């Protein structure tokens, strides 16, 4: 059975544990309809018990519900199409590099469900249309909000931009720190993982590739 805090009022007496699970609604967080909050709460209680904790002690009473809300937030991009952010474009007679650097993100390593955090740099060569700059960051944000590996995050973003914008070239470079390598396991704080995905001219033309990598690596200021 799922324990409840003093504030919790089970809405149903049904036998299913998930139906008895208290649900602490965070009014600030939009509900993620794809997520089974009570099932997560139940699982977190099991984990707490399994590691030797007492899920019914006061400090932990709200933890399962908090974790459910956290997963709903961290995995909010699981069922959505991040490419929808690239649908609105502006016709523009500009055919040189567009680069947005230092797009911070936080994703979840699918192997350990621990965060990996860092920055993405996105460049593309437009073909008659450009997209709002913030939309590139929105795509990163949404692709990151799934259980991920960095390589897939990197090439998913590159593919979306290449396909949806018909870009003549796309370069995506991602640098991040994986908690599963810094706080557990091999424990190497400071280790950085870099991945890149090159498409079109940035893949085939060494000069274009060198130019975009120069801009990405250029120190700020
Ligand atoms: N390629 C790739 N590997 C990742 C990513 N995030 C975490 N990993 C790695 O996934 C691997 C999982 O390895 P396993 O041997 O199955 O799991 P493990 O025993 O917990 O591995 P250790 O971390 O070495 O203790 C580890 O080497 C992690 O460093 C990622 O984004 N990309
Ligand atoms: Zn991991």
Automatic annotation (TrEMBL):
Pfam family, one: GTP_cyclohydroI
Domain GTP cyclohydrolase I span(s) in chain numbering: 40-216
GO biological process, one term: one-carbon metabolic process
Domain of life of the source: Bacteria
Coiled coil: none
Signal peptide: none
Record: residues binding Zn(2+): 109, 112, 180
GO molecular function: GTP binding; GTP cyclohydrolase I activity; zinc ion binding
Transmembrane parts of this sequence: none
Known EC number: 3.5.4.16
Disordered: annotated segments: 1-27
Reactions that this protein is recorded to catalyse: GTP + H2O = 7,8-dihydroneopterin 3'-triphosphate + formate + H(+)
Keywords recorded for this protein, A-Z: GTP-binding, Hydrolase, Metal-binding, Nucleotide-binding, One-carbon metabolism, Zinc
GO CC annotations on file: cytoplasm
Pathway participation: Cofactor biosynthesis; 7,8-dihydroneopterin triphosphate biosynthesis; 7,8-dihydroneopterin triphosphate from GTP: step 1/1
Subunit note: Homopolymer.
Family the UniProt entry places it in: Belongs to the GTP cyclohydrolase I family.
NCBIfam families (alphabetical): folE, PRK09347.1-2, PRK09347.1-3
Name under which the protein is recorded: GTP cyclohydrolase 1
Annotated gene: folE
